Amino acid sequence: MLQVFSSFSSQPVGSSGAFGVRQTPQTLDALEGDSVTMICSWEQANANRVRVVWRRADLPLPEQTAVVQQGRQDSMLAQSTLSIPGVALKDAGTYYCTVTMEIPEFQREEGSGTSLTVKTDEHYAQGASVEEVLIFIVRCLPFLALLTAVFCLCRIEAKAADRAPESSGREEENEAENEPATSLLEAADAEVVGGRIVVPCPTPSSGQPETENETITPVIS
């Protein structure tokens, strides 16, 4: 339920006929169930009757709350207060106060508005949980970077260890493949002529007499 109060102080103001409407605060955040208060103040001089109307931007005219302050106030600061005890989610919105001076001269001015935001405890809890998750992620980033570096290093060392046995095995295979070729080359150096095996002797070096090919006669039993 909206409650509207009007009060006047004896603070002198400037020239006659001038007044400026001010609303405080401009923004208001509250939890569901809290009590909130909005203030509308204006300067007036020699006003016989002043009318103050509070309204919410999205409410139709029949649901607007109004207060009428009548009487005579000379050169003073006037104030109207709008209070909402036990605020609910449906009370959220922008509230405006309109001040109308009817006597001696008609003047009307509206405040800049007060924006009311109503949140639940669950909304605040969700916001806090999201913030905690973000903090946890930021704290874990250095550990994740270190873990990734160690994993990559282990992968590189494992690949290097796998390549070493493969290289030694290839060398042994190459040696085994070369042995039959060497034996064939040695056998090709021997010739069979008329039942005799002729083994060519190596070419003598300079200064030594040439040696004839050595003939080996096979013995058949």
Q: What features would you describe in this structure?
A:
This protein is α+β, with helices and mostly antiparallel strands. The protein has 2 domains: 3-119, Immunoglobulins (Immunoglobulin-like), CATH 2.60.40.10; 121-171. Helices cover 31% and strands 38% of the residues. The chain has one helix at residues 121-188, and strands at 3-9, 22-24, 27-31, 36-44, 47-56, 65-73, 76-84, 93-103, 107-110, 114-119, 191-193, 196-199, 214-216. The strands form 3 sheets. Strands 3, 5, 6, 8, 9 and 10 form a 6-stranded mixed sheet that branches. A 4-stranded antiparallel sheet has the order 1-7-4-2, with no helix packed on it. The longest helix is centred in the last third of the chain and has 68 residues, at 121-188. Residues 1-16 have a biased composition (Low complexity). One of its GO terms (cellular component) is B cell receptor complex. Residues 204-221 have a biased composition (Polar residues). Residues 1-21, 163-185, 197-221 are annotated as: Disordered.
Tally of strands: 13
Number of domains: 2
Round the mean pLDDT to the nearest integer and report it: 70
Strand percentage, roughly?
Answer: 35-45%
Which overall shape is indicated by the principal axes computed on the Cα atoms? rod-shaped
Characterize the biggest β-sheet: 6 strands, mixed
Q: What is the name of the CATH class of the largest domain?
A: Mainly Beta
Number of helices: 1
The name CATH uses for the topology of the largest domain is Immunoglobulin-like
Going by helix content, strand content and strand pairing, the class is alpha+beta
CATH A-level architecture of the largest domain: Sandwich
Q: What share of residues is helical?
A: 25-40%
CA radius of gyration: 53 Å
Distance between termini?
135 Å
Low-pLDDT regions: 7-17, 65-75
- CATH homologous superfamily annotation of the largest domain: Immunoglobulins
InterPro entries: Ig-like_dom, Ig-like_dom_sf, Ig-like_fold, Ig_sub, Ig_sub2
Organism: Conger conger
Biased composition (Low complexity): 1-16
Pfam family, one: Ig_3
